[in-house]
Write a sequence for this structure.
């Protein structure tokens, strides 16, 4: 058992052969739970839950052999869901969702850890799409699309290695074409995703 200088419990759990093993709980100095879960052979296993100081749940993350694996969820201090994402062997993999404190969806994405690619879609406060990005190896890569608040297209272009390339088509809110922008070397086709 570990304690704060005040004498209150900071952590409690069991050991096997001098290594943490079993249920563990970490506490705030005022006695409220901060974090709890299971440790096997010195690393996190199973679901770990954390709380804000006021006792509101902050996060729930599933671990396998010390790495996040499965669903992870975090909450805003007001109790509304903040983030939901999946892990596989310590890496984000699959669909994830980020929410505003009022519960509105702000961003959704899909990550493929096998190909190191991702797609991210952002939303306006009223719920329509505002932008969609594609990523490769952590850099914007591929077709970029953006929309006006009324849902009409505003921009279509392409990124390569994090840089804008080629011709970017633009429209005003009524759908009238605006002068295009040209960036770097043009890609072979805007449709090649």
């Amino acid at each position: 058992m570990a304690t704060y200088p005040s004498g209150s419990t900071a952590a409690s759990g069991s050991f096997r052969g001098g290594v943490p093993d079993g249920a563990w709980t970490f506490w705030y100095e005022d006695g409220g739970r901060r974090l709890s879960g299971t440790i096997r052979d010195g690393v996190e296993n199973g679901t770990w839950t954390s709380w804000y100081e006021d006792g509101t749940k902050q996060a729930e993350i599933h671990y396998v052999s010390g790495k996040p694996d499965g669903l992870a969820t975090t909450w805003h201090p007001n109790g509304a869901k903040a983030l939901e994402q999946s892990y596989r062997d310590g890496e984000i993999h699959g669909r994830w969702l980020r929410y505003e404190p009022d519960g509105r969806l702000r961003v959704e994405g899909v990550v493929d850890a096998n190909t190191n690619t991702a797609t991210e879609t952002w939303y306006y406060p009223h719920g329509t799409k505002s932008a969609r990005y594609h990523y490769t190896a952590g850099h914007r890569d591929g077709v970029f699309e953006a929309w006006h608040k009324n849902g009409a297209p505003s921009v279509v272009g392409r990124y390569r290695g994090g840089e804008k390339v080629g011709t970017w088509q633009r429209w005003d809110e009524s759908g009238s074409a605006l002068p295009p922008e040209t960036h770097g070397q043009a890609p072979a086709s805007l449709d090649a995703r």
User: Anything to note?
Assistant: The longest strand covers residues 19-27.
